[in-house]
Design goal:
Blueprint: E1 2-6, H1 10-21, E2 25-29, H2 33-41, E3 59-61, H3 64-68, E4 73-76, H4 83-90, E5 99-102, H5 115-123, E6 130-134, H6 139-143, E7 148-154, H7 157-167, E8 172-177, H8 180-203, H9 207-227, H10 232-235, H11 238-249, H12 254-263, H13 268-274, H14 281-295, H15 301-311, H16 316-324
Parallel strand pairs: 1-2, 1-4, 2-3, 4-5, 5-6, 7-8
Antiparallel strand pairs: 6-7
Helix pairs in contact: 4-5, 8-9, 8-11, 8-12, 8-14, 8-15, 9-11, 12-13, 14-15, 15-16
Amino acid sequence: MRAAVMGAGSWGTSVAKVLVDAGTDTVIWARRPELAEAINTEHVNADYLPGIALPAALTATSSAVDALLGADVVVCGVPSQSLRPNLTQWTPYIGSDASLVSLAKGIESNTLLRMSEVIAEVTGVADDRIAVLTGPNLAREIAEGQPAATVIACADEARAVTLQSAFSTRYFRPYTNTDVVGCEIGGSAKNVIALACGMASGIGFGQNTLATIITRGLAETIRLGVAVGAQIETLAGLAGIGDLVATCSSPLSRNRTFGARLGEGATMAQAQEATNGQVAEGVKSCSSVRALAERHQVPMPLTDAVHQVCHDGMSVADAVNSLLGRSTKPEIYRD
């Protein structure tokens, strides 16, 4: 099996390392030739994973065509809002039976499509060839070989099992799932909730507040997930609460870091600097997740508050007050 990882950011590079460590012949595509050269000659990605030694068997190229030709597995490792234009260029070179694996966690802004839906629409590939890799997977910890689990979701269970083998190492344990919708909703919503946790931490609130945000954020995620066809069990697992806890709790999380800077009083531009120029997916996803929720008439007050802070100029303090000022209600609500 040969894998092409399309994207050499921190997560794409970590996944490429996992694949090589699993014994999978792997090439990684880097947009910049100098980064591809550094990976090939120095076996490092100093821009996104400084201090991490990459396997000598991992090869890199700045040619998307060279990376894609002959690949049995195409791993899409670019940010969610740039997936469509990149895929449009890649599609002619993707093999007729290649599996496409999405790493991006977001909802496309103008269409409100999940990433697997974007892949299907652009490439014309059937759903049973499209998979999602998601879970509590902070890139640097994975690159360091710290034990972690993940989920590989695909409508074709047999294909998911094949991919499970390709990604399985002594430190990285994949589980399979056929609920692609649930896995993608969990991955998209958790970035928004992580921003909220970061804001709360930055403004000086403690663990009670963070636990409240995580728990109520999970409630929002489940409401939206069920409305679009997800299984509750998925959102109670690695792709849901597992990913939510990791992203909301760790200083390695770009979304949490971005939110913390906003809570400390930074501007959006200053908060971006704190993430070393890497994309905090929740900043754009908060708007698309909110719009998807509105389409399905699902209340998501935390998501709405994050959107207002990031895009409407609301202060973090005012967002907190708006949430605390909402009317009281039962914790468990049923129509």
